[in-house]
Amino acid sequence: MDNTKLIIFSAPSGAGKTTIVRHLLANNPELAFSVSATTRERRSYEVDGKDYYFLSKEEFEEKIKNNEFAEYEQVYQGTYYGTLKSEIERLRKEGKNLIFDVDVEGGLKIKKLYQQDALAIFVKVSSVEVLKERLNNRNTETEAKRAERIAKAVKELMYEKLFDVVIENDNLEEALTKAQKLYNDFKNNTL
Ligand SMILES: Nc1nc2c(ncn2[C@@H]2O[C@H](COP(=O)(O)OP(=O)(O)O)[C@@H](O)[C@H]2O)c(=O)[nH]1
Ligand SMILES: Nc1ncnc2c1ncn2[C@@H]1O[C@H](COP(=O)(O)OP(=O)(O)O)[C@@H](O)[C@H]1O
Fold this sequence. Notes:
Low-confidence stretches: none
GO molecular function: ATP binding; GMP kinase activity
Family: Belongs to the guanylate kinase family.
Protein name: Guanylate kinase
Bound molecules: guanosine-5'-diphosphate, adenosine-5'-diphosphate
CATH architecture: 3-Layer(aba) Sandwich
Catalytic activity: GMP + ATP = GDP + ADP
Function: Essential for recycling GMP and indirectly, cGMP.
CATH class: Alpha Beta
Strand content: 15-25%
């Protein structure tokens, strides 16, 4: 089946897209997570093959050479992230709707590739201060890496208008309800 839906979540780091994506996955069994490949270090709570395919730089560059990515980027200096064509094809063949957690540029590229089969959602918060606070609380990065994420986030805020829909994630409950409703409407062609 190649007419399944693709639902893309992009956001500045810390806005809450991973939290929203996990919630939708837990509540919608026909949804599957598009596992990206990356060269960044695994966080203690992450599982290889479930959260990301963790690859060496050499392995990743080999796949670039072989044209295996639908899209990829060096999101942070020296760190690759990308969506493998094989991942999308495998899950669509299984009849799954796919959900993506990718950065803003990656999200727009996937939207361009899949057009009306894809819904591109931008998650935002009311201020950069909120992002900083959440990244501090999540405590998964060093000070320098956090600063890099914040600098990128400030630039990404300008991309909001290029997305199909925006979800404000100041209140998590409201954001989760809106995300579920959007997914239902998109899935049922009633958006
Ligand atoms: N373009 C692209 N970006 C990705 C992909 N996978 C993850 N990302 C993005 O890379 C950025 C960094 O992700 P991560 O290291 O998990 O950090 P976090 O956003 O701070 O949780 C986030 O914006 C992700 O959405 C991908 O396959 N392609
Ligand atoms: N509405 C919210 N209010 C407060 N904290 C939140 C909210 N949404 C997410 N968080 C927390 O903020 C941090 C960043 O969220 P995460 O989903 O990892 O963001 P992203 O994937 O966009 O980087 C996490 O610790 C998460 O638990």
